[in-house]
Amino acid sequence: MNQEYLDSLLKEIKKVWKNYHPPRNKNILFHGIHFAGGEPFLNFPLLLHAVKRAKELDLYIGYVETNASWCINREDVHEKFYLLKSAGLSKIFISCSPFHTERIPLKRTLLAIEVALEVFGKENVIVYMEHFLPKIAKIDIENPIPLEKWIEIYGEKAAGYIFWEGYALIPGGRSGFHLGHLFPRYPAEVFREENCKFEILESQHAHFDLYGNYIPYFCGGVSLGKIEDLEEFYKNFDLEKLPFIKILVEEGPYGLSKYAQKLGFKESKDGYVGKCHLCVDVRKFLNDVFPYSQELNPKDFYRFLF
Ligand code: SF4
């Protein structure tokens, strides 16, 4: 994301969120803005700028999210956390799961937590998910742990439970295809009553990517449009102009699969772990048929699925 786009996005958010206060009934994870990635510390000057700019605009910052991959040197971690705190950041979110330790040794996560506690204080450090810390520590602290190692230790069934239930995994990306065999799968028809009205229109949770896509909820690869002027975007939003998304809102991915079947889509014989798994399978097919569809964006989401 470049600085110009980030600045304009924050200004636009301010226009839409004039008098924002975090809703009490909402989980703290969904309060205000969070800066995430990818990994936002990969471009620390931009991250620091983002926090400063959001503060100047008096925007409510929920937290900055990190996978701790960069946490190697204690002084460096301290300096970066301290600079963010001084710029007005109150909370930090540190990811911890078998999917993170697949690439990131636990010792980096532990260093991030230790320094974060010092700088931000206990109540302002979110470790997501903390219950994985002892499980991972028992396997290996120094090195990354391939997912196969979990399967070797726990067996397929228990490892599947750890991955899917333990991390509350949403199969809205590659997970359904790569890890679906470790969890119960169902025919597409099982999801026929599940539409996506809440996720797309009502969740009040969205992501903005570096290309300007407005991604609802956790629906990677679904774009409600490009954001240049957020106020205008809300004013002019018209579901009728988004044929695939309209089907998802009204009939869910099962409805979309019925539409895609007329074009040649074939449901997986192995079934699906959840409605989002079915959705991604159908959208991958539709993206091949309609490679220029603006609703199916960013394009790399589909390019790197398998
Ligand atoms: S099924 Fe598709 S549109 Fe619905 S919540 Fe999952 S990813 Fe989003």
From TrEMBL:
Co-factor(s): [4Fe-4S] cluster
A Gene Ontology molecular function term of the record: 4 iron, 4 sulfur cluster binding
UniProt KW keywords: 4Fe-4S, Iron, Iron-sulfur, Metal-binding
Keyword Transcription: no
Name of the protein described by the UniProt record: Radical SAM protein
Originating species: Dictyoglomus thermophilum (strain ATCC 35947 / DSM 3960 / H-6-12)
